[in-house]
Every structure is written in structure tokens, then in C-alpha cells.
Amino acid sequence: MDYRNAFAISASGMTVEKTRLDTTAVNLANVHSTRGPDGKLFRPLTVKVGEAGASFAAGFTQLQGATLRGATLRGAEVVRIEEANVAPRMVYEPGNPDADAKGYVSMPGVNQVTEMVNLASALRAYEANVVAMNAAKTMALKALDLGGPQ
């Protein structure tokens, strides 16, 4: 039995969840930034995930699908990271150099509660992939023990 596919599928899930964690960290880090190096307002980022091999975008690793009773087993991959289409928050700070004539400053439309839920969700999904990988490793080691000397 080939356990490499189980390891590859779990690894692809861990990679996706790591990307989600990184994106959430970027969003939370920029929650109070009024403008970036390019002078534009930061827009929250979202991660779009798909089945590995489903997209043909260059630069993404694609897993070879194993078949199990006619079903194709594939991992996950990040399809793209895109800016969310959310309105900026308007905060009244008349002393801020980025304030408009009425004293309002445009802040990124990052919802901290949503980002914390995304953080917890990505963390749990990452942990689930680690558990699945460890289970596959344990099964592979037990299979080796069965064939060894008694």
C-alpha cells in the first residue's frame, strides 16, 4: 500500500491552511493602516481554495490523483489570493494627516471578528491535517511491524 498519497493530501491541506493563517495575519496587521507604500488604502485579502489539479494556473503544485474505487483523490491548493471588495471604514480623526475636509479618515474594511474566526478555523483545519498525517504514518509503521520478525 502506498501511503505517499495520504501524506501528499495532508501536506497540501497544511499548505492551504498556512496560507490562510498568513493572509489573516496580514489583514490584522493592517487594520489601522491608512495607506500603503503605494499611497493606496489597504484592502483585506481573501484566499480562494480549490481542488488540486482543478486549475491550470502556472506555479501551483499539482498532486497526482490516486484512485480508490473510481474516485479520484486529490489534495487542495490555493487558486488565488485576491482583495476583498469591502467598503472602507470612516473614522473621525480630525488631527490625522490623512483626514479629509470633514475630519474623517478612511481605514481598511477589515472586520476583526471575522478575521479571528478565520484564524481559529484555519488553525483547527491545520491541526486536523496534522492528525491525518500522523495517522497515516502510524498505519505505515504498523504495516512494517506486521511483516517484521516476531
Automatic annotation (TrEMBL):
Q: Which GO terms describe its cellular component?
A: bacterial-type flagellum basal body, rod
- Kindly give the InterPro entries that the UniProt entry links to this protein: Flg_bb/hook_C_dom, FlgC
Coiled coil, from the record: none
Q: Any idea which UniProt keywords this protein has?
A: Bacterial flagellum, Cell projection, Cilium, Flagellum
- Which positions carry the signal peptide feature in this UniProt record? none
Q: Which residues form the Flagellar basal-body/hook protein C-terminal domain?
A: 102-146
- Spell out the subcellular localization from the entry: Bacterial flagellum basal body
Assembly state and interactors?
The basal body constitutes a major portion of the flagellar organelle and consists of four rings (L,P,S, and M) mounted on a central rod. The rod consists of about 26 subunits of FlgG in the distal portion, and FlgB, FlgC and FlgF are thought to build up the proximal portion of the rod with about 6 subunits each.
Can you name this protein? Flagellar basal-body rod protein FlgC
The primary gene name is flgC
